[in-house]
Amino acid sequence: MNTQTASADIDHVARLMDTVESAEDANARAVKSTVLSPRFYTTDFQAMDALDVSSVRAEWDVMMKEYEGDNNHDHFQRDAAFADEVRTLMPQLSPEMRQEFLDFLISSLTSEFSGCILYNEIRKNVANPDIKQLMTYMARDESRHAGFINQSLKDFNLGIDLGSLKRTKAYTFFKPKYIFYATYLSEKIGYARYITIFRQLERHPDKRFHPIFRWFERWCNDEFRHGESFALIMRSQPDLLRGANKLWIRFFILAVYATMYVRDHTRPLLHEAMGLHSTEYDYTVFRITSDICRQVFPVEVDIDHPVFRRCLERLLQISLAADRATQRGGVVGRLQRAVCGVQAAWTFGRLYCVPVIHQELPKAIRMDPVW
Predict the structure, then answer these.
(1) For residue 326, what are the CA distances in angstroms to 260, 312, 321, 323?
(2) Do 203 and 276 touch, CB atoms closer than 8 A?
(3) Which domain holds residue 323?
(4) Residue 270 lies in a domain
(5) Which residues are CB-neighbours of 272 under 8 A, at least 6 positions away?
C-alpha cells in the first residue's frame, strides 16, 4: 500500500475514534482495555519476596543512594509560565490535533499510574528489604509522573479520577519474570520516547505546542533509572537470561515494538506538529532502546531487517482494518474482526521468525542516560 493511501486510512480511522469531550470520556478512555492501551498488572508476591540481589550488591547500593538522593524532588512543579503557555498555545490546535494530544496524555498517564500501582502493591506484599525499598522509590516517582500529567488534563477539565481508575480497570497477572521483561522494556522505551521528543523540541522550540514537553529530560531520567533497577534484578537472576527464556525476551521485545508502532501511527498529527514523522520517530526510539537493552538482553531484534519492517507495516494495516470492522458492527463486522485477528497472529508469527542478533552481556551492568 502506498504512503498516501496509508495516510488516508489512518486519518479515516482517527476520525472514527471516540472523541474525548468530557471528564467522563477521559475516564472511560483510561479504563478501557484494548490490545494497544496500557494495562494494569499484578504478580506473584511470594516470588518477588524471595529475590536475592546480593550478586549485584555494589551496583545495587549505589543505585539506592541515587533514589534516596531524589534529584527530581522539586522538578514536577508547574512554573509561572506553564499556564500562560497553555492559554496561548492550546487554542491554536485543530480539533483533530487536540484529540490526538489528549489521547497521548491519557495513555501516558495510564501507563505511569500502572507502574505506580504495581510497584506499590509489591511494596505492601513483600518483606524483602531490598525489594521493598526499591518499590517504594519507584512508586513515588511514578505517582509524581501520573499526577503531573493529570494536572495538564485538568487544564482541559478532563482530569482522571485515579482512585476510581485503580478500582475499575482490569488487571492482568504476569509471572515475575514477565514483569521484569515487560517493565524493563516499558521503562527504557519510555526513556527513549521522551528523550527523542525532548531533543527534537530542544532543536525546534517553535514546535513545542505544550509546556509539558519542557519537563521531559529530567522526567525520562527517572524512567531510565527504573529500567536500571530491573536490569540489576535480571542480572542477579542469570537463569532469566538463558535457555528458553531467550524466547520470551524475544517475544516481549517484538510485542512492545509492534504495539508502539501501531499506536503511534494512529497519531500522525501529533508527530507532525513536532516536526517528526511517525515511522522515523519509532525507528529512532527502537534504535535507542536496542542500544540500551544490550546491558541485559542476550538477544537483539534486527530492526533493519526488511521482513521486520514489512511485518510492522502489515500489523498497522490489519489494526486499521479491525477498527473499521468495529465501526461497521453487526455480523459482518464481527467476522471481519475475526479475520483480522487471524491475520495479526500470522503476521506476528512471521515477525517472530526474523533472525535475532546474539550478544555477550557486558560485565558492567549500569548505564548512563547519554542520548
Answers:
(1) 21, 21, 9, 5
(2) no
(3) 302-358
(4) yes
(5) none
